[in-house]
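Sequence, please.
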């Protein structure tokens, strides 16, 4: 019988790839790793434990383990040390997951100050040896300025446990190590992170991650993460295509985070103002896909919160590139009240192929803009998450006018009628079916779950 260590290297390689999250398919699913972090961590530990059983497995496993490292808790110290001192392993990193969320039970009804959140994040203090302190301070010294030229001020005592009186980035060794980590992965292609509210990446330099194509940033605390903190990372990634964010904010006074190659953007639970949303639209000249879900919990100010009207009149800035649009905008965000103004049309979005929107919140009665007037002629797939009897005329009009006005329309999806309403779905389905257009009625919450 062949013993496991005696198998050819390519066979051992395939075995280990399938045990842990290391193959190409899993690397492309990096966005989901933060949500399923414990499962991924368990599989990584399994491979690490297995490779300690013999030299043959260790020889094969070590490069694989560093293909997709997970950074969490005390592993920041060892991971930064290893990558900073092992050029061969540094070049192996293709995917990186950083898990650093507030380590406290938060009451959703209580507003927690940044100082309290910081203390919670620091409960498990890192142990950094004198040798590691010297190494890390040498790394910090290599980056005196940000990518935008601003100077970086990190006290040399950050590794010793002495706290800066201010509750900010330089007070937290884990955040500094996480920022250093991004300077040690020149070949990384995908990054997914769940970080603290004081996150910053000051050491990232222009062009230092030339292969990075996907960045997923999630903050699961009760505050929003400032999108401007990602400016250095975006500058470091000239080939970036996808940016997915959860629980972030951007103020209108900010400079924005422009990027020339980004094609896909998700802003889930985002606190934005009209001015900052305009900067986002202007800053991504190749944007093809946008998922937008304004936040209700993190609001910069109720007076300046981004409204549905402002969203719709701003989208045409990217009429030359946008092809896929997914918006969850609510009635409370309708500027001036739900019934005060007609809906801005998307007719000018001549490249738009797919659209998902909670349209019923925009079109409350027959006196306002109908679907025929609202949708662009290029639309191929249209979805809305809510339906009621008052929308029947608009839906049937869309079916009737589709061959003439929307020659590319192939499928429409509507939320199901409420139980108290008369179910008009058979009538609508027949109307679209006669024109060769697929019509589906789905539960509203299914789409909401897909967004989240």
């Amino acid at each position: 019988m062949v013993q496991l260590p005696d198998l050819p290297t390519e066979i051992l390689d395939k075995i280990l790839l399938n045990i842990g999250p290391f193959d190409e398919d899993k690397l492309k699913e990096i966005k989901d790793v933060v949500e399923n972090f414990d499962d991924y961590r368990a599989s990584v530990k399994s491979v690490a434990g297995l490779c300690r059983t013999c030299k043959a497995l260790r020889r094969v496993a070590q490069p694989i383990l560093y293909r997709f490292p997970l950074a969490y808790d005390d592993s920041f110290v060892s991971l930064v040390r290893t990558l900073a001192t092992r050029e061969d392993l540094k070049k192996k990193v293709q995917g990186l997951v950083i898990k650093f969320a507030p380590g406290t039970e938060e009451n959703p009804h209580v507003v927690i100050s940044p100082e309290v959140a910081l203390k919670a994040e620091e409960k498990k203090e890192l142990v950094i040896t004198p040798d590691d302190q010297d190494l890390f301070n040498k790394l910090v010294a290599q980056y005196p300025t940000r990518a935008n030229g601003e100077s970086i001020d990190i006290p040399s005592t950050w590794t010793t446990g002495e706290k800066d009186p201010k509750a900010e980035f330089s007070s937290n060794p884990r955040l500094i190590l996480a920022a250093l980590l991004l300077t040690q992965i020149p070949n990384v292609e995908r990054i997914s992170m769940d970080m603290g509210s004081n996150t910053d990446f000051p050491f990232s330099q222009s062009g230092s991650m030339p292969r990075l194509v996907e960045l997923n940033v999630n903050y699961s605390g009760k505050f929003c993460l400032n999108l401007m903190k990602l400016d250095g990372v975006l500058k470091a990634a000239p080939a970036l295509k996808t940016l997915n964010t959860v629980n972030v904010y951007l103020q209108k006074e900010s400079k924005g985070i422009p990027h020339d190659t980004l094609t896909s953007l998700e802003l889930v639970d985002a606190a934005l103002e009209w001015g900052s949303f305009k900067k986002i639209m202007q800053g991504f000249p190749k944007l093809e896909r946008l998922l937008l879900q304004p936040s209700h919990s993190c609001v910069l100010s109720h007076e300046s919160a981004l409204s549905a009207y402002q969203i719709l009149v701003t989208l045409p800035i990217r009429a030359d590139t946008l092809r896929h649009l997914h918006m969850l905008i609510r009635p409370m965000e309708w500027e001036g009240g739900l019934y005060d103004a007609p809906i801005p049309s998307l007719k000018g979005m001549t490249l738009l192929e797919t659209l998902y929107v909670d349209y019923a919140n925009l079109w409350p009665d027959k006196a306002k803009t109908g679907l025929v007037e609202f949708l662009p002629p290029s639309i191929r797939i249209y979805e809305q998450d809510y339906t009621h009897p008052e929308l029947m005329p608009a839906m049937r009009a869309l079916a009737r006018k589709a061959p003439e006005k929307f020659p590319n329309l192939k499928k429409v999806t509507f939320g199901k009628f409420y139980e108290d309403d008369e179910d008009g779905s058979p009538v609508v389905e027949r109307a679209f079916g006669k024109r060769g257009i697929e019509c589906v009625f789905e539960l509203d919450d299914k789409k909401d779950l897909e967004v989240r």
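Residues 297 and 311 are 19 Å apart (CA to CA).
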